[in-house]
């Protein structure tokens, strides 16, 4: 590929809101361009990287015996109503109507579509197990799209679904996906950890694991042991840390936390809510989540529940209130909304100062027996079980082996494997006939990889202040040939010869044939991050070149032939 005709240009400046290094670098290097918040075009260089990641994902999925298909992004709302998720999924689900006024959604995930597909195709145990996957654009109207491809509203996901006849079968399917994921992230050159994402999964059989790319920008905290292989998502890890009493962030015992008040998803302030309830803002201590007229409201009630419920009903003009589960609120409010944010997630929160002060950094989570601690406006908080309230702390003894110490890392969720069981097969009627002719629900698992998120995650892990450093397996090109002066015939001839020979060897080569100053060319090359660079300069007449390794920026002057062998 000739760089003179490469579409997309490098930029010196990027918008100030590009906070993440990966976001800035990918914009500057001309890998992506934003169309709208969380919605990006992949320019040719970015698309090449994405296709390489896809290729690795495909190879490993196929090797694991999964079969690829492609499902529609546009899904009838009926399907989502049938599974019961239409109402609970909340504003992240992009909803639309066709010209006949029929309701649709743009797929944020495909459990509904795949389960109905399999329901219609398979009715006998003889046709199971089966694992199906696709690589497809997903849509999620994230409340806070940010960090470029890390949290997009339109993004590329690999999603796979397994269907088994037994839990042992599911375990095997899960295990084979888990291993495929490990190979995929290894091959991509990523530093990652698979962590337990189960509440209280300790010792037990993990029903879900997250694959975390280690990076400071990550929104999750991983706790892992220095001695054994214990590793978990911190929010999930809290329930395995055995503690006897509830204490606040200053270590003072709080015992039973009295009850509870509210916050509405339209971000009414704590003061307004307190006014509804006739209490002082500083008396607000704990959240409960109610649904009023299908609108979730996180309710903070102090003292007498029932009295406060009535006040709340009146204040909201609601007929009735129904206690909702955490998932409902999480979906409906999206994160982060006041402290009615999703349970179990680390999110920046925006609570009124008053709440923090009065609650000494402790507030209710939207889940029975859970509290949030370290609640400081604009900072991350932690979820802790009331009974085990003092969260795992860095340096604590490992709850599993009791020998090592706990360490913290920040992580980006790049993959997620999940044992679903019969949740969808029951609601959507995906049944098969067993050998005795009896109908049984299929036992499902689902497995996601954020394909486009990987691009950013690797850039986060692998860059320096000059640009991106691509691992060879996913680099847009393997070799960057740079004739320093295209006016010098010896240089252009040798550069072209190298280009032809490398290409003939099956390598992907970019040649900087532009009539630009050397400094401009080198800066762009550093930014692109292609693993090897062959600089063809003044020594070209003598058949010598400079071979530069992008990661170390180490240079060696060698003959063109030697350079060929070094790279091949
Ligand atoms: P997160 O916790 O980051 O919101 P999730 O748990 O909602 O992710 P899953 O439903 O598990 O995501 O989807 C499977 C994978 O898709 C995730 O592991 C992640 O890598 C990727 N993914 C999810 N949301 C996004 C997004 N908004 N932009 C890019 N990739 C995403
Ligand atoms: Mg999410
Ligand atoms: Mg997640
Ligand atoms: Mg997930």
Gyration radius, in Å? 27 Å
Structural class: alpha+beta
Spans of at least 5 consecutive residues whose pLDDT stays below 50 are: 199-205, 238-269, 325-391
Helix content: 25-40%
**What percentage of amino acids are in beta strands?**
25-35%
| Ligand roster | adenosine-5'-triphosphate, magnesium ion
Q: For the residues shown, what is the average pLDDT? A: 80
Taking the sheet with the most strands, its summary is:
9 strands, mixed
Counting DSSP E segments of at least 2 residues, the number of strands comes to: 29
How many helices? The count is 16
Structure description:
The protein has 568 residues and is an alpha+beta fold. The chain is built from 16 helices and 29 strands. The strands form 8 sheets. Strands 3, 7, 8, 9, 10, 11, 12, 19 and 22 form a 9-stranded mixed beta sheet that branches. The protein has a 5-stranded mixed beta sheet with strand order 26-25-27-28-29, with helices on both faces. A hairpin with a 7-residue loop joins strand 27 (532-536) and strand 28 (544-549). Helix 2 (44-63) crosses helix 13. The two termini are 18 Å apart. The model is unreliable at 199-205, 238-269 and 325-391 (pLDDT under 50).
Can you give me a brief rundown of this structure?
The protein is an alpha+beta fold and 568 residues long. The chain contains 16 helices and 29 strands. The chain is 28% helix and 26% strand.
Relevant terms:
binds magnesium ion; ATP-binding; binds adenosine-5'-triphosphate; globular; 16 helices; 568 residues; 9-stranded mixed sheet; 29 strands; transferase activity; Pro-tRNA_synthetase; alpha+beta; 5-stranded mixed sheet; Anticodon-bd_dom_sf
């Amino acid at each position: 590929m000739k760089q003179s005709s490469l579409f997309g240009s490098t930029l010196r400046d990027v918008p100030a809101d590009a906070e993440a290094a990966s976001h800035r670098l990918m914009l500057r290097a001309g890998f992506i361009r934003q169309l709208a918040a969380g919605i990006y075009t992949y320019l040719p260089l970015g698309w090449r990287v994405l296709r390489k990641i896809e290729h690795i994902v495909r190879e490993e999925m196929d090797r694991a015996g999964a079969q690829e298909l492609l499902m529609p992004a546009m899904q009838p709302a009926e399907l989502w109503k049938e599974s019961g998720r239409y109402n609970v999924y909340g504003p992240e689900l992009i909803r639309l109507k066709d010209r006949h006024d029929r309701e649709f959604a743009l797929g944020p995930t495909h459990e509904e579509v795949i389960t109905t597909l399999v329901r219609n195709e398979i009715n006998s145990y003889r046709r199971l197990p089966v694992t199906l996957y696709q690589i497809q654009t997903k849509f999620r109207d994230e409340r806070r799209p940010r960090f470029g491809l890390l949290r997009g509203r339109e993004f590329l996901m690999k999603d796979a679904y397994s269907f088994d006849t037994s839990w042992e079968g599911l375990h095997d399917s899960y295990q084979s996906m888990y291993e495929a994921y490990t190979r995929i992230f290894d091959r991509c050159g990523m530093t990652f950890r698979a962590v337990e994402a189960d509440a209280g999964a300790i010792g037990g059989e993990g029903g879900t694991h997250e694959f975390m790319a280690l990076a400071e920008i990550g929104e999750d905290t991983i706790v892992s042991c220095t001695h054994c292989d214990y590793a978990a998502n911190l929010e999930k890890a809290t329930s395995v840390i055995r503690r006897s009493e509830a204490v606040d962030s200053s270590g003072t015992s709080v015992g039973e936390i009295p009850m509870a008040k509210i916050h509405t998803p339209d971000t009414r302030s704590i003061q307004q809510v307190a006014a509804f309830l006739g209490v002082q803002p500083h008396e607000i201590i704990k959240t409960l989540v109610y649904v009023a007229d299908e609108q979730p409201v996180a309710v903070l009630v102090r003292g007498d529940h029932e009295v406060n419920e009535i006040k709340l009903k009146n204040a909201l003009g609601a007929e009735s209130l129904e206690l909702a589960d955490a998932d409902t609120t999480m979906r409906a409010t999206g994160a982060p909304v006041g402290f009615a944010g999703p349970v179990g997630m680390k999110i920046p929160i925006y609570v009124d100062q008053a709440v923090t002060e009065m609650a000494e950094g402790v507030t209710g989570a939207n889940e029975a027996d859970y509290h949030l601690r370290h609640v400081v406006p604009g900072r991350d908080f932690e979820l802790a079980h009331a009974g085990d309230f003092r969260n795992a702390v860095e340096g604590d003894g490992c709850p599993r082996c009791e020998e090592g110490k706990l360490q913290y890392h920040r992580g980006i969720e790049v993959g997620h494997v999940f044992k679903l069981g019969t949740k969808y097969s029951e609601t959507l009627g995906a049944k098969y006939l067993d050998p005795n002719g009896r109908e049984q629900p299929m036992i499902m698992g689902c497995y996601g990889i954020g394909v486009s998120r990987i691009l950013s995650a690797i850039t986060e892990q692998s860059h320096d202040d000059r640009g991106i450093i691509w691992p060879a397996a996913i680099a847009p090109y393997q070799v960057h040939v740079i004739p320093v002066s295209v006016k010098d015939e010896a240089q252009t001839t040798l550069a072209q010869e190298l280009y032809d020979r490398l290409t003939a060897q099956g390598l992907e080569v970019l040649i900087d044939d532009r009539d630009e100053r050397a400094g401009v060319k080198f800066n762009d090359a550093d930014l692109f991050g292609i693993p090897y660079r062959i600089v063809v300069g003044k020594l070209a007449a003598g058949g010598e070149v400079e071979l530069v390794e992008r990661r170390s920026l180490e240079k060696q002057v060698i003959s063109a032939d030697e350079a060929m062998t070094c790279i091949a």
